[in-house]
Amino acid sequence: MQINTIHQIIQSSQAELQSLLNLDKTVAKHEIQILIQHVLKVDRAWLIAHENEKLQPDINNTLQTLFNRRLKGEPIAYILGYREFYGLLLKVSPATLIPRPDTETLVEAALSKIPTQINQQDIGQKLSILDLGTGTGAIALAIAKNRPRASIFALDASQAALNIAIENAKHLAIHNVQFISSDWFNAFTGQKFDFIVSNPPYIEENDAHLQQGDLRFEPIAALASGHDGLNDIRQIVTQAPKYLNINGWLMLEHGYNQADAVAALLKQAGFSDISHALDLSGIKRVTMGQFNP
Prior knowledge:
Structural class: alpha/beta
Number of helices: 10
Mean pLDDT: 91
Low-confidence stretches: 120-124
Oligomer: single chain
Largest sheet: 7 strands, mixed
CATH architecture of the largest domain: 3-Layer(aba) Sandwich
Helix content: 25-40%
Strand order of the largest sheet: 5-4-3-6-7-9-8
Distance between the termini: 64 Å
Order of helices and strands: HHHHHEEHEHEHEEHEHEE
CATH superfamily of the largest domain: Vaccinia Virus protein VP39
Number of strands: 9
Shape: elongated
């Protein structure tokens, strides 16, 4: 990457990303633009208006270092240290999964069921929501931001991930989330919730995609779950009825081909009103059921 104009840097870098990482042309251009904006601390409009400017040598060197990391396959989110999710700017690290647009489907499904005005029969009583395997806190924080009168409990077995989630909550000034260290439900005894939401590991442990693209850099424990990818989902579905209030909801994100299997697990566990929510590609990405024994 020579010290050329911004336009020339974008063109040459885009070609390298396409060649080495097999990225789509548009995606490759977007990624190099994001890196330049990050280094220069400017927005996209500024970048477009100043494409004929040259970068200072020190700026160019910094950009080259970040670009080399991307050429080796490291995800853009880890290079920048943040990712936007449901309108929230979240810190990420290799200790957490990178929040993805598909997971916004789970947030939308939850918000569609959670009333905007929560009626409190008793002073201090709030509708309670449990986020299993919170990672960066993306799901919990997005729900909490949009339902500030609800009480959110976000747990993760990874303390490193919880530290990131806590930092995100502080940075976003979201105060109605409590973060808990727990391997699924282990930290709870007798407590019940109105909603349980989760984006658990759901990739088959031998899936070749785990060795490709961004997944190579993400924590395997947060991705893979047994030979069919459903081990953690089975555990959650089996245990969830003990932790749900009557008429409470369990909502799970899952793989593109797992909707029927998850629906069958929910039915077997006694859930009713089982339905699905579609992601941006029209795929059944979330399956949910109501606990009404």
